UniProtKB/TrEMBL annotation:
It is found in: Cell membrane. It is a multi-pass membrane protein. It holds the Pfam family BPD_transp_1. The chain crosses the membrane at residues 25-47, 59-80, 86-105. Residues 21-209 form the ABC transmembrane type-1 domain. Keywords: Amino-acid transport, Cell membrane, Membrane, Transmembrane, Transmembrane helix, Transport. PANTHER family: L-CYSTINE TRANSPORT SYSTEM PERMEASE PROTEIN TCYL, MEMBRANE COMPONENT OF AMINO ACID ABC TRANSPORTER. This is Amino acid ABC transporter permease. Belongs to the binding-protein-dependent transport system permease family. It comes from Deinococcus aetherius. The keyword Cell membrane applies.
Length: 221
């Protein structure tokens, strides 16, 4: 093993991989931003008294959680054209990640909402608050504190899940490493550098997550 050659190939690949890391982070943030409202809507639907809505959203969550993300990407990008719906790799990748994240986030949000005692809701109703006011003023602030760690973990998980969109030619971090390897024929350096960049992104997000959790615990967010 020629360590100098490996180091040289890693340094040469670094600018390309950093650019790919930016795309990876953009995909993860986009999926999180779009997945949060989807997850919140699904969580409320699953808590509603309307049985057909609960059944439909439960089916969606069960399907997403019960199938691999890679298969979901294939279905959206390669399957939808059979019905006349053709998506670009970027749109298809973001859509797949968003639908996947929305299902998992909905369970996190639903559990956080259920963690707020029923007595607090009843007390709010007795004070004349509507259901929407109770949710906004009483339930959600407490549920957010409970859900924050899981939401942060979901974002970190999304960063790693973005590697799967490389199969539909999105040039994110992993795909960038593969392109470098195809040119240099030296896999260890680029792959190791890509792994370190994934780790660096996750470490930064962990720091942000802990900061948000501390502020929530003090009631300043």
């Amino acid at each position: 093993m020629d360590l100098s050659f490996i180091l040289q190939s890693a340094l040469q690949a670094l600018p390309v991989l950093i650019q790919g890391a930016g795309i990876t982070l953009a995909f993860a943030l986009a999926a999180m931003v779009l997945g949060l409202p989807l997850g919140f809507a699904v969580a409320l639907a699953r808590l509603s008294r309307f049985a057909p809505l609960r059944w439909l959203t439960g089916l969606y969550v069960s399907f997403i959680r019960g199938t691999p993300l890679l298969v979901q990407i294939f279905v959206i990008y390669y399957g939808l054209p059979s019905f006349g719906i053709t998506l670009s790799p970027v749109v298809g990748g973001v859509l797949a990640l968003t639908l996947n994240a929305g299902a998992y986030l909905s369970e996190t949000i639903r559990a956080a909402i259920l963690s707020v005692g029923r007595g607090q809701r009843e007390a709010a109703y007795s004070l004349g608050l509507t259901g929407a006011q109770t949710m906004r003023l009483i339930v959600l602030p407490q549920a957010l504190r409970v859900a924050a760690p899981s939401l942060g973990n979901s974002l970190i998980g999304l960063v790693k899940d973005t590697s799967l969109v490389s199969v539909i030619t999105v040039v994110e971090l992993l795909r960038s490493a593969q392109l470098v390897i195809a040119r240099t024929f030296e896999p260890f350096g680029p792959y190791l550098t890509a792994a370190l960049l994934y780790w660096a992104i996750s470490a930064v997000l962990e720091v942000v997550q802990r900061g948000v959790e501390r502020r929530l615990s003090r009631g300043t967010v």
